[in-house]
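Lab notebook: predicted structure, single chain.

Context: the supervisor wants predicted structures on file for every construct in the current expression panel, including those that have not yet been purified. This is the next one on the list. No modifications to the sequence; it matches the entry in the shared construct table.
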Amino acid sequence: MKTEPSVFSLEDLAQRSREPWDGIRNYQARNFLRSMQVGDDVLFYHSRCPIPGVVGLARICAAARPDPTQFDPTSHYFDPASSPQKPRWDLVDVAYVRSFPRTISLDSLKAHPAFQDSPLIRKGNRLSVLPITPAQWEGILAMANA
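Prediction complete. Output recorded below exactly as produced.
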């Protein structure tokens, strides 16, 4: 799960313990989000910062449900084409698990063999929610614990 730390960081999540992951407005990212199950661990990725990369772990603690921001005309995420009867957008709740001792940088991921075909390393393909393979998951955890 990708976020800009100036908007919402892993440190923000740690302070709140649990937070709705709202504002997803891309159909592919929404579909990935909808496939998440309570108990799934997720990598927390910071973008648009001096060192973009994976900074820690979070856990899905509530299943996908309609994102209320889509119905709120005062919200930045308001979608006038969406209605409570036919919602387009969902959210999940995430809980803080842990911070890594260092950022696993995008450059490190690009150099790792398991990521050569990953959308995570392709410019313009970094959705706010996207899946990774078990080998990629293990590679990141190995880099974080090295």
